[in-house]
Amino acid sequence: ELTKLYELFGAKWISESVQRNLIHRGKVFVTERSKKLEDLISFRLDMLFVNNRGERIENLDEKRIELLRNHFNVYESEGIQCQLIFQNKTISLNSSECSSCALEYEKQNVYLFIQKDLLNLDYIDISSELTRFVYKKPIDSLVHSISDKLSSPLETLKRRGIPVDRLLKIRQQQQSIQISLPISPIKRETNQQKSVEEKPSQIQKQSESSEQQQQQINRRQSQQEFLPQQTTRGFLQSLKR
């Protein structure tokens, strides 16, 4: 009740007033662990942001979901740095004091960086970054739900009532659509083949047109030769008269 009273008077939680930025530091690496995590998130993406009935949860940014689907990569980095900004003051923390991963995005690419020295992945940290990226107003309970969906076997999720098969089927259908979409390069190749096939006919047309032009030139020359003959004949006939 006291919390609601504070909210009624416009008080904010400290967590809402503190801006947290996570960034990677040092070199980045593609490892077997980063590949497996990337495949895991991509494979279970349609299960992460739904309720137990398979319905989308509100306040989702659908465009960012598509970025995770099509432009998402996972790397391991030498370090993760956390910056806390509160009332124009910045405090820097390392990964052991803050988070073991950082999600960064620019333009159309999304990158998840994992602390390289970790023995085990922290799915709570991973889910927290995914939730922060996708939801307009992140909810802490969703972090634990997504973490559980990433770390639990599919059979366990099925026993909990999550429509795993239906959601994975939707993913397979989306993949088949994406596979069928890249027809344009093939079309461009066929167009190039057509243009190559059309070149002989174009050359033939050019040769025909050049022959026609030569015939026209010959006609003009014959006409020019014929005109002086006519004029001389007319002049001689006038003298005879």
UniProtKB/TrEMBL annotation:
Residues 201-225 have a biased composition (Low complexity). Residues 188-241 are annotated as: Disordered. Residues 226-235 have a biased composition (Polar residues). It comes from the Eukaryota. Residues 188-200 have a biased composition (Basic and acidic residues). This is Uncharacterized protein. It comes from Adineta ricciae (Rotifer).
